[in-house]
Design a protein that fits this description.
By secondary structure, the protein is an all-beta fold. It has no helices and 13 strands. Strands 1, 2, 3, 4, 5, 6, 7, 8, 9, 10, 11, 12 and 13 form a 13-stranded parallel sheet that branches.
Length: about 120
């Protein structure tokens, strides 16, 4: 999922954040965040990550646990180990077999959502 011109940051499994986190570029997160909001460009939620809060990003890949709503402008990828408990708004959803998604989804393709003819 990465993009060549984005700054890449990594927060490992031993990081715990209480509150919100705003980032630019690409963030790989494998720690714990509680009661806040993650917002930025490209977010990779690792297999050991636990997020209790909302997410807003251009692209998101989830392999860990998220309890909160996600608003993803471009693409949301739920990996096989993902657990998303919350509502999802995105233009594109990729969901691997084994992923758990409990919530409502609103998938609106970019470009106005025209129906194929």
């Amino acid at each position: 999922m990465g993009r060549p011109n984005l700054t890449k940051s990594v927060l490992a499994q031993d990081v715990e954040i209480i509150g919100s986190l705003t980032f630019k570029g690409e963030l790989s997160f494998d720690g714990t965040i509680k009661g806040g909001h993650l917002s930025g460009s490209v977010l990779n939620v690792g297999e050991h990550a636990s997020v209790e809060g909302n997410i807003t990003a251009d692209e998101v890949s989830i392999a860990g646990s998220v309890k909160g709503n996600a608003t993803v402008a471009q693409r949301c990828h739920l990996r096989a180990s993902a657990r998303l408990n919350g509502d999802l708004n995105t233009s594109r959803l990729i969901m691997e077999e084994g992923a758990t998604f409990i919530g409502m989804s609103n998938i609106t393709p970019r470009g106005g959502g025209q129906k194929p003819g």
